[in-house]
Amino acid sequence: MVIRRISVLGVGLLGGSIGLAAKSALNGVEIVGYGHRKVTLLRAVEIGAIDRFATKVTEAVEGADLVILCTPVGVFEGLVGEMANSLKAGAVVSDWGRTKRSVVVLGEANLPEGVHFVGSHPMAGSEKRGVEFARADLFANALCILTPTVKTDKEALEAVEGFWKGLGMRTTRLSPQENDQLLAEVSHLPHALAAALVTLQSEKALNLAGKGFLDATRIAGGDGALWRDILMDNRDNLLAAIAELKKRLGELEGLLSGEEREELAKWLDRAATRRAKLHEQKLKELNLD
Q1: Is pLDDT above 50 for 174?
Q2: pLDDT for position 119
Q3: At which of 174, 195, 219 does a domain end?
Q4: Over the chain, what is the mean pLDDT?
Q5: Residue 183 and residue 158 in one domain
Q6: In sequence order, which ranges of 1-112 are alpha helices (DSSP H)?
Q7: Are residues 29 and 144 in the same domain?
Q8: Nearest to 142 by CA among 118, 120, 119, 117
Q9: Residue-range definition of the domain harbouring residue 233
Q10: What's residue 40's pLDDT?
Q11: How many CB atoms lie within 10 A of CB 265?
C-alpha cells in the first residue's frame, strides 16, 4: 500500500505531531487536517503539520489512503458514522485511542466493505495540549501497540505497522482485550492516581511541594475530557486495578500500624529494586538502533 494522502481527524498535539513526522518521513505525502476550531487548523498549516484542512469530515477523508482518528475516544463514533460513505475503496482507518476494545468493534462494524480498520495505540504523548506543542520527533523510538483481530485485513495491518515504524516507532501486537487490561495498570491507573494526589493536599502543604511531588503528578496535567473518555471506556479494568492498589496500600497500612520497621524497609526496597530494573530496561530500549 502506497500512502499518498493522510487525513488526520483532530489536529492537536498528537495529530499535529503525526503530520510533522509523516511529512518528514514520507516523500510527497499530503496531510489533510480536520477540526472544529479554524484558528487551530490555521496554526497547524502555519507550522507545517498539515497541508490543508477541512471543517467537514466528509471533505477531510475524501481520497485519503490512510485516516487516523486523533480526537478523544468519545468522539470516534460520530466521526466513523460521518466518514463511512466518503471513504474510497481500499482506504485504511486507524486511530491513536488509548483504549481499544470498543474502538475496534466500532471500526470493524461500521466501515463499508473494502475499507479496513486497524486499531493502533502509539505510546507517545505529553501532558501539554495543543498543536503548538507538536513535534516531529515525538514518536522516535516510542512503542506503538497494534491490536488486530481475526477480522483485520493482513495487508492493511502491515501498512499501518509500516507507517508507525516509518515515524521511528517500535511496534508490538496485542489483542484489544490485552491492551485495555495491561494499559489500565501502567497508564490509566497512574493517571487517575496522579489526579487523586493533586486533590489530596491542603493549600499549606502544596506550598511546600518540591520537584518530587511535581514529577509524581506531572501526568495529572492532561486534558480532562480526553482522560474522562479513556477512564470510562476502560472502567472495568481500571476498577480491578484500583482494587489491587487498595491491597498494596492495605499492606503499607498494616506495616505502619504494626510498627514493622524491618518489613517496611523490605517492602520499600522491593519497590525500589523493581523500579530500577524497569528503568534499566527502558534505557536499553531507547538506545536501540
Answers
A1: yes
A2: 97
A3: 174
A4: 94
A5: no
A6: 13-25, 38-46, 57-61, 76-83, 101-110
A7: yes
A8: 120
A9: 178-258
A10: 93
A11: 11
